[in-house]
Give the backbone structure.
Amino acid sequence: MSRVIISSTMDAPLFSVRMRATLRGRHLAGAERIVPLSDVSQVVSDLMSRVVTGADVVADDVSCHAERIDSDALSHANLPDISTWQVSDFQEGRAVAAQLLSRAGVDPDVASRAVQLLAEGAGPGGTVMRGAAIMDAATGVRLESDPSRGVRASRMDVAIECRRDFEARLHRAGLGHRRVLEALVLAGKVISAPGIVAELCWSDDPEYPVGYVADRAHGYQRISELKPVGNPHGGRIFFVKPGTLSIIELTNYLERHPVMFDSLGKINPAARWEPGHG
Ligand code: AMP
């Protein structure tokens, strides 16, 4: 892989820049980057312009926060391999998601119940959570301390000198949608966490039916449909091995430990899921 290293930014102090948009106090959108100080103002402007420009401006409060990262605490990691399973409809997609979760080590009943939970809304009263649920992979018991907020994976990004190259390679593979790289980075951090068995995700964006299952052995496995277009339910579930780590330590790692990705995994061509895979 060819890589351009810009030495002046390599040693510069890094900042975590996080944007959050709300409407009447309800979370609408969030995005984040880790960049050198020299890029902070441009990134703030890019992240803000996502929610304050365009026809459908719906946020009434947008904030952006930049915070210096302790470079000694920063971990470097590789992004997971990418595969895409084509399914005929969302019902098949959900069945595939449950199979991929059990292949990763989630109990099969727990996997089916988890898919059902996201379909119904994992927050109190069937609402969409702001972050992810944490679920015991063996029993299905929910472990996050706040079932409405959940846990927010944060402080992860692609190294700035790799971003263009990764975006170009994803674009050439037909995966140029901004959501793909963002979800890949998030999944990369989640499955790097001690005690995590797998992640299940689909968006609450009614126009975006693609979702994924991620685990360390099989990487980031996109599923072409996990909900019908127009459906506003979505969410994330992080499955954990029972008793591996305290939930406080896990939450702290996911929310606060900075992780930078400096290599992209293999991009597999899209394929149909056939029973018996794996
Ligand atoms: P999105 O892919 O941004 O549409 O998010 C889908 C769902 O994943 C949201 O409804 C949240 O429940 C959850 N989520 C979004 N961002 C995060 C995050 N950073 N950490 C954990 N869960 C998240």
